[in-house]
Amino acid sequence: xxxxxxxxxxxxxxxxxxxxxxxxxxxxxxxTLRVREFRGASKSNTLWTTxxxxxxxxxxxxIFGNPIPVGYAFRRPYEGGHSGQSQHxxxxxxxxxxxxxxxQRTVLRNSAINSGIWSYVEPVSISPTWVHxxxxxxxxxxxxxxxxxxxxxxxxxxxxxxxR
Length: 164
Ligand SMILES: [Zn+2]
Fold this sequence. Notes:
The protein has helices at 35-39, 51-64, 102-115, 149-163, and strands at 2-8, 13-19, 46-50, 70-72, 93-96, 120-121, 131-134. The protein is an alpha+beta fold. The chain binds zinc ion. Zinc ion binds next to strand 5. Zinc ion (ZN) binds next to strand 5.
């Protein structure tokens, strides 16, 4: 059972969910993104993401029209990850298609770029053996929130991680 904290971009509030590993992520449609897929190899008891990230996944999956095998999305800073991509620490990035052919990855990479859904799609020169896309949000959306100290602390962490 994972505790999943979701920043709801529409209400500016944090939401907490408890889901088992085989369940879809909150806001995921048609079971296309399971908790275990989002988690990948992360051992963290608590995972977090944003509603906008989950909706972006739904849209990308719909546009692509076929299953997208997820290597991982979420990672804690101490669990490493590929260079310069702290978006994974904020739960707003995906690394997918690790077991695909280069040709398959090219199709998805182009789909991700052309969809206009993502803030950033990593070029093949940087990540040739997987496809990275992320949905980052900027500093302005991180401030002046009416939240409790506890939630503020959580949220601050999200913001710092998402803007590096
Ligand atoms: Zn990545």
